[in-house]
Amino acid sequence: MSKKRKWDDDYVRYWFTCTTEVDGTQRPQCVLCNSVFSNADLRPSKLSDHFNRQHGGVAGHDLNSLKHMPTPSDQSETLKAFGVASHEDTLLQASYQFAYLCAKEKNPHTVAEKLVKPCALEIAQIVLGPDAQKKLQQVPLSDAVIHSRIDEMSQDILQQVLEDIKASPLKVGIQLAETTDMDDCGQLMAFVRYIKEREIIEEFLFCEPLQLSMKGIDVFNLFRDFFLKHKIALDVCGSVCTDGASSMLGENSEFVAYVKKEIPHIVITHCLLNPHALVIKTLPTKLRDALFTVVRVINFIKGRAPNHRLFQAFFEEIGIEYSVLLFHTEMRWLSRGQILTHIFEMYEEINQFLHHKSSNLVDGFENKEFKIHLAYLADLFKHLNELSASMQRTGMNTVSAREKLSAFVRKFPFWQKRIEKRNFTNFPFLEEIIVSDNEGIFIAAEITLHLQQLSNFFHGYFSVGDLNEASKWILDPFLFNIDFVDDSYLMKNDLAELRASGQILMEFETMKLEDFWCAQFTVFPNLAKTALEILMPFATTYLCELGFSSLLHFKTKSRSCFSLSDDIRVAISKKVPRFSDIIEQKLQLQKPL
After folding, report:
1. 382-412, pLDDT tens digit by residue?
2. Are residues 411 and 328 part of one domain?
3. What is the dihedral of CA 414, 416, 420, 421, to 10 degrees?
4. More exposed terminus of the chain, fewer Cβ within 10 Å: N or C?
5. Number of domains the chain contains
6. Is residue 402 in some structural domain?
7. Is 147 in contact with 109 (CB distance < 8 Å)?
8. Which GO terms describe its cellular component (predicted)?
9. Same domain, yes or no, for 475 and 377?
């Protein structure tokens, strides 16, 4: 870190005064144009250069002469009294607004002074004239200024979220996931779900680096330290949803053990998206070999640049839609499904390409049995993709997610019965290539066995439909058979009273389930609390996955040393910074000494 420069009263001879940041950093401010410069510019050569080039004056003023000049803050207060924004206010507001857009678009901080401001000055000169250009010139948009603005907006957004968490009438839900960025640095990301007024809010909480390792104890320490740093008790968390990584997964994992030790009654949920990739473990040997053959074919084409270029040229020549294959990855469910569909639809063309390259993969790839297995896998993974995609949205709770899983598993017996009768309607790719009874008999036995294993796997791994009968009033309190509720249940009277209200019935029919129960907090607090405690936990780590996509824009080869915590918060948070409060606080801090 570079050494911080100190203010010298002799610098006033260049018509500069000193402003001090919250961390004690001193920065020069021009009295004539109100421009604020970085600490690195706190030296005579820089100050005199600005004074001579921008104001064309002769140095030689002293401290006493400046004391008699009205300060920018005094001028600002006078203008505010007449309902007019001061010149300094507008400059700051423009600077903050640009920094906000810069972060939202995930652009480098230097884009302002290297591209945007020069372009704006040229446009102003041509269209509006030199006076407008002179005004734009005063807007502070340096790299250091943009970085400082984003940090301040990030802290304001975080403060808003923390205030909401403290005010939430129920314990909050947390969504946690970890990844490794392009600099091989572990990143832990968290989102929070809480109640504000009459709705459930999902917000970005933090993205912090895991400095040394990604063990359960490291994840827990970072998670706990965040709450301790902001003086919030850890037991404000009512549930945690993890991404299934080894440091988090399972009842006996290190992270879960530490969390339950600190918060004994916390609910731990398991992401219902990522484990779908584990379905491959139920595949019989022949189906698994077919999947691995697909992977080897893709690696042969994509893993070698000459092959990839020839492959693209070949497909452009014959006019095929798919000219680029996706890489196969172990934990990317949608990626695998799309690969299998593309491979099946381009089967003949890929086979020609493998022959042209004299690849040793040709024998296995053009085998009839392989093509039948490929068709089944493409159909199956397409069904699983649709299931996964239906749960990839904001607001997904564990009840809705498990309903979707339950509905999916209930299709298996129907599929099995149709397959036994050689009816492949539910597997259109497979139906397309089955031309003989012998082929149908051979694949039907394998599919039936695999679907049965898959059904058992889903029931055992995902705990499908674990909401007991007596609690289903949460989903529909009006159609629910109240006789299922035990007479000793204290809230049965409240439930009967709620069912008798026509106005509440209209609200139920027009509102989302979560919003409906939030609206009942004032009338039926016990019912609302019980319902929302079940609806609050996250079902997936979908928001973290979206956050990791944004992470790729921030952490690049040219920005590998970039500290991204503040930028990514401003970029993906739904909260808008309180610009007026930030600017007012900034002006107070910039009052001359």
Report:
1. 888 888 888 888 888 888 888 888 888 889 8
2. yes
3. 20
4. N
5. 4
6. yes
7. yes
8. nucleoplasm
9. no
